[in-house]
């Protein structure tokens, strides 16, 4: 099936060679190429090592020299009041490759090496406080109180769960390991996906000034705080919202994907064959996003340069969102059947990276969340437009106009969900909180080696299909 892109937006270079890995794969769509992210800056970073795991350190975090991974882990553990368990003797080896195997020992070492939990901002935002404070020494008794959870006793646990999974995403356009959700350990599994709910985030921000970074979220926090107190009432959908949603849905290609995903019984799929299939799917999904742009109701309001910049920065997120929603029956049905016929070698299993494990866990969580919400076509169209209209992307010529468009569809989506689902007062924030998780996962997938993608998809699709069959 051939899908021709619009003339004004040329076909991305190298699309047929495999799934594009970063913004440079669509650089032909813009007169100015996208610069590699922080590549020159990273080259100049001193080769210091993290005191926790030995990975390359990025600076002084919470009082000690550490890497981004341990910085983010420590912050999440303290902010979310995590209580971990060690299945061994509480003396696990900490290294870059083994640091995720035991989160109990990782947090223990953070505290023993002097990481200062009081340097973490109380509002949970990026950037610590009291930066002049260096490493701290605390007694073994105090460490034990933190590790056992006694330090947090009496504090309300605001997380909520569904089928063992709870929801955690933090709104915002930027993505960093230190302020994004992360899978954490539970006593039953060191690799379970346990994430915080919106309620904790809501309490964190209600009554406090919202930072400029989050001001693009119209009414989100106040909406969630008060909606549960007001009984649902019958109401009509604003005519303008109805018109805008219809325009967005009309711009979507909701026809089933044309890439063949059928396989004979008993056929054994090779890694190369599965990888080729994933490439074809990525091509088709990408071309659908390119064609979608010309049909947007606000197409004439922005420049081609801005559209090119937006698409080159968000295409992976758009593909992921569509795969989890409107095309999910094919992806988690037909494609899952194909991946089930692929048997990875021992070497592939051994080489599967921690980055791949994190992506796998987050994708499974996100699938379950979307499966629970049963996102409608109208909601999907709004979410896609909101995610696309990211005014924080570098190189835009009219960021203020993008911000207004972004807000327009926030209001439209909120209006629609309140009208369509009056008995689900938290549905709108639940939907919006999925967007930063999608953005984070899409960014992480760039770092997964190409040869690991077949195994990654096999693991994710198998787990998701199994969880659905058990419901």
TrEMBL record:
Compositionally biased intervals (Low complexity): 178-191
Gene Ontology BP terms: gamete generation; negative regulation of transcription by RNA polymerase II; positive regulation of mesenchymal stem cell differentiation
Domain NR LBD: 240-471
InterPro entries: NHR-like_dom_sf (IPR035500), Nucl_hrmn_rcpt_lig-bd (IPR000536), Nuclear_hormone_rcpt_NR3 (IPR050200), Nuclear_hrmn_rcpt (IPR001723), Znf_hrmn_rcpt (IPR001628), Znf_NHR/GATA (IPR013088)
Keyword check for DNA repair: no
Region ranges (Disordered): 1-39, 156-191
SUPFAM superfamilies reported in the protein's UniProt record: Glucocorticoid receptor-like (DNA-binding domain), Nuclear receptor ligand-binding domain
Top-level taxonomic group: Eukaryota
PANTHER family documented for this protein: KNIRPS-RELATED PROTEIN-RELATED
Family: Belongs to the nuclear hormone receptor family. NR6 subfamily.
Protein name: Nuclear receptor subfamily 6 group A member 1
Organism of derivation: Coturnix japonica (Japanese quail)
């Amino acid at each position: 099936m051939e899908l021709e892109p619009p003339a004004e937006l040329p076909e991305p270079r190298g699309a047929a060679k495999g799934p594009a890995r970063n913004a440079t794969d669509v650089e032909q769509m813009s007169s100015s190429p996208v610069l590699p992210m922080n590549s020159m800056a990273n080259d100049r970073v001193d080769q210091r090592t993290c005191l926790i795991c030995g990975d390359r350190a990025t600076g002084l975090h919470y009082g000690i020299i550490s890497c981004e991974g341990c910085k983010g882990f420590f912050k999440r553990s303290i902010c979310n009041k995590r209580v971990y368990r060690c299945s061994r003797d509480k003396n696990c080896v900490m290294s870059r490759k083994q640091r995720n195997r035991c989160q109990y020992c990782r947090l223990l070492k953070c505290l023993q090496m002097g990481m200062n939990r009081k340097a973490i901002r109380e509002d949970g935002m990026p950037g610590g406080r009291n930066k002049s404070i260096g490493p701290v020494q605390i007694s073994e008794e105090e460490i034990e109180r933190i590790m056992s959870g006694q330090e947090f006793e009496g504090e309300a646990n605001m997380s909520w769960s569904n089928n063992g999974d709870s929801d955690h995403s933090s709104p915002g356009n930027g993505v960093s390991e230190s302020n994004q959700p992360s899978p954490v350990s539970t006593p039953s599994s060191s690799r379970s996906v346990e994430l915080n709910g919106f309620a904790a985030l809501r309490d964190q921000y209600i009554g406090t000034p919202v930072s400029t970074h989050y001001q693009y979220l119209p009414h989100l926090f106040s909406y969630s705080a008060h909606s549960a107190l007001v009984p649902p009432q019958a109401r009509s959908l604003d005519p303008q919202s109805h018109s805008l949603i219809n325009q967005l849905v009309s711009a979507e290609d909701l026809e089933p994907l044309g890439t063949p995903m059928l396989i004979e019984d008993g056929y054994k799929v090779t890694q190369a064959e599965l990888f080729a299939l994933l490439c074809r799917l990525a091509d088709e999904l990408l071309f659908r996003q390119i064609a979608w742009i010309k049909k947007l109701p606000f197409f004439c309001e922005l420049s081609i340069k801005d559209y090119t910049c937006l698409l080159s920065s968000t295409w992976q997120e758009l593909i992921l969102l569509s795969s989890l929603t409107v095309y999910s029956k094919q992806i988690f049905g037909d494609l899952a059947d194909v991946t089930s016929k692929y048997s990875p070698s021992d070497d592939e299993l051994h080489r599967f990276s921690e980055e791949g494990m994190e992506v796998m866990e987050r994708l499974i969580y996100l699938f379950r969340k979307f499966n629970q919400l049963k996102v409608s076509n109208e909601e999907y169209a709004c979410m896609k437009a909101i995610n696309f209209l990211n005014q924080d992307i570098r190189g835009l010529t009219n960021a203020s106009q993008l911000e207004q468009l972004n807000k327009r569809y926030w209001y439209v989506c909120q209006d629609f969900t309140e009208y369509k689902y009056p008995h689900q007062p938290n549905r709108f924030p639940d939907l919006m909180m999925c967007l930063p998780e999608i953005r984070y996962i899409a960014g992480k997938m760039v770092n997964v080696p190409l040869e690991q993608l077949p195994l990654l998809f096999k693991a994710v699709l198998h787990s998701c299909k199994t969880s659905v069959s058990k419901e």
